[in-house]
Amino acid sequence: MHAEWETKNYDALLDRVTKGQQWHFKLRANPARKAGVDKGRRHRSDGIVGKVQGHVTASQQLQWLVDRSVVHGFRILEDEYGQPNVVVKERHKEQFKRGGATVTLVTAVFEGRLEVIDTKLFRDALCEGIGRAKGFGCGLLTIAPETRSNAE
């Protein structure tokens, strides 16, 4: 028996997103930077030389997300101590062959709370993803509404 896939219209969620909303989020990403000079240089057609390197520490990975949040229309909410309300987990270095070359990805899963600060940019992030390696399963930002228990 084959599993049947169900798809749902995403427009209903996108239409509900407004500035000021707070959401729980999860993101599996490839937090990386382009190094200016490195032994393993990467040549591009535009003449720029550099190598993409993954951030390896949890603090580097968290800073990568914080640095990109505003351009994607959100800000990371802070905890009661003024720290970003994000957990960085499932940190891995993955290597595999593709077209005869070895591909190395450093991945991390981020879970936390955010606030929408620009509706259009945030909707774009939901539809287009964040960061590199989207073709390898990275970049998908998922959100869930804030819930409050009656005990609070």
Please count the beta strands (DSSP E, at least 2 residues each). Answer: 8
Strand coverage percent:
35-45%
Order of helices and strands: HEEEEHEEEHE
- Under CATH at level 1, the class stands as Alpha Beta
Q: What average pLDDT do the residues reach?
A: 82
Q: Compute the number of structural domains.
A: 1
Principal-axes shape call: globular
Number of helices: 3
**Could you tell me the radius of gyration in angstroms?**
18 Å
Structure notes:
- It is a single chain.
- By secondary structure, this protein is α+β, with helices and mostly antiparallel strands.
- The protein has a single domain, classed as Alpha-Beta Plaits (2-Layer Sandwich).
- Helices cover 18% and strands 38% of the residues.
- The chain has 3 helices and 8 strands; from the N terminus they run H-E-E-E-E-H-E-E-E-H-E.
- It has helices at 11-16, 58-69, 119-128, and strands at 22-29, 32-35, 42-43, 49-54, 74-76, 86-98, 101-116, 141-145.
- The strands form 2 sheets. Strands 1, 5, 6, 7 and 8 form a 5-stranded antiparallel β-sheet that branches. A 3-stranded antiparallel β-sheet has the order 2-4-3, with no helix packed on it.
- Strand 6 (86-98) and strand 7 form a beta hairpin.
- The relative contact order is 0.26.
- The model has no long low-confidence stretch (mean pLDDT 82).
- Pfam families: CRISPR_assoc.
- InterPro entries: CRISPR-assoc_prot_Cse3.
- This is Type I-E CRISPR-associated protein Cas6/Cse3/CasE.
